[in-house]
Specification:
The chain is of the alpha/beta class. 32% of the residues lie in helices and 17% in strands.
Length: 179
């Protein structure tokens, strides 16, 4: 059975920088939970960041590939460099995904870790730009489809496609996997 890596905040865990969660209420996600398909993970927590913590953004003019290549940083509004936490968390998410047979990741949009289509611009002004977070980028580089919380139907389609390609069975009731 192929699995879905899902941001812990989307599953109601209070792990966001501000100590809140952003739970997704979706019948498909609930079915995946019952089937034991969900691998719940927060790259920022696995990278060693506390809750709560200051917000962080990829520095202006840079992108996730630059961060992963060591050419750019992720900073807090005070200028603290938290890059290593984000990179470590991205690597942890990839290892977790590989360990659990993840085909699809459902991640929180706009995060410097998990944003799949947009992130904040690095100025802490609330402005979003096209781009992706470091975890989303690393997962995609390694063949894992990355979608956000508004794209559950597409995630379901890609999961079904992955299972049809590799022929894995879908036994129900294996519980929720966490890391």
């Amino acid at each position: 059975m192929r699995k879905v890596l899902v941001s812990a905040c989307l599953m109601g865990r209070r792990v966001r920088y501000d100590g809140r969660a952003k739970p997704v209420d979706d019948a498909t996600v609930e079915r995946w939970r019952r089937e034991g398909r969900l691998v719940v993970h927060c790259p920022e927590i696995s990278g060693g960041l506390p809750v709560p913590r200051p917000p962080a953004e990829i520095e202006p003019g840079a992108d996730a590939a630059d961060v992963l290549a060591g050419r750019a940083r992720i900073l807090t509004p005070e200028g603290a460099d938290v890059t290593e936490h984000f990179v470590s968390g991205a690597r942890s998410a990839l290892a977790t995904a590989r360990d659990h047979g993840v085909a699809v990741a459902l991640l929180k949009q706009s995060s410097p870790s998990c944003g799949s289509r947009e992130v904040y611009d690095g100025t802490f002004s609330g402005t979003k730009v096209s781009g992706e977070g470091v975890t989303a980028h690393l997962l995609r580089e390694h063949g894992i489809a990355v979608l956000d919380e508004t794209e559950v139907a597409e995630a379901a389609r890609l999961l079904a496609e992955a299972e049809s390609v590799d022929g894995r069975a879908t036994p129900p009731g294996q519980g929720l996997t966490t890391s």
